[in-house]
Amino acid sequence: MAGYLVEDTRKVTTHRLMEMKQQGKKIAMLTAYDFTMARIVDGAGVDVILVGDSASNVMAGNLTTLPITVDQMIYHAKSVVRGVQRALVVCDMPFGSYQVNATEGVQNAIRIMKEAHCDALKLEGGEEIIETVKRILAAGIPVCGHLGLTPQSINKFGTYAVRAREEAEAEKLVHDAHLLSDAGCFAIVLEKIPAALTERVCREVDTPIIGIGGGPADGQVLVLHDMLGMNKGFSPKFLRRYADLNAVMTDAIGQYVTDVKSGDFPNEEEKY
Description:
Elements: H1 14-22, E1 27-31, H2 35-43, E2 48-51, H3 55-58, H4 70-82, E3 88-92, H5 102-116, E4 120-122, H6 130-138, E5 143-148, H7 154-157, H8 167-183, E6 187-191, H9 195-204, E7 209-212, E8 219-222, H10 224-227, H11 245-262
Parallel strand pairs: 1-2, 1-8, 2-3, 3-4, 4-5, 5-6, 6-7, 7-8
Helix pairs in contact: 2-4, 4-5, 5-6, 8-9
């Protein structure tokens, strides 16, 4: 299976992501939430597929990521894993599944890994959850960190504006990145922070840094439905649209409706 610009068809592992950082090779990461889309994303050569809790927004229509449950995340992750051969599959631990205490966090982490068969988990936060991160890592589960704009804390922030512009928050983010790296996280997502801060973290920690709205980093991640132009209501500065599938799909479905109503579909060649 050869993707675009991908000659190495071996299964991507957390160890290989570290190798990619050390060799200066960029890491391409995208979300996926179902079998069909995951198979396409994997076949195109993406290194890491994130089964994001953004499924709460793009799949379920919720305003935030908060409502999605562990059961729902397992369902999406299982569907994605079945469609993937090469990419590393990372599943978000949803809001409430690891914030209560470390014991509950480990129990939920083990359950997700056992039932979804994904490769790793992602958790939002730094010092506040570091003991839970360490416990999950001690259980043999790879962990990806997430700092900066952490959508599960949107009610605390009150806004989706850029984070860590002020020195105190920036210094805490750097401190948290060191904590996550020293604990053994295989990657850290930095969301919607100043590019200079992302550059500093990339320089200071050995762990691969994945940016989203944070400028250049060791890799980048976007939400699939956003970069394909399926979600027209979301247009942040950092988003590059690679297609306008909203228009393509609307035209195709509209043509189908027209053909059915006119009697043109099915025609003589399309019946038995």
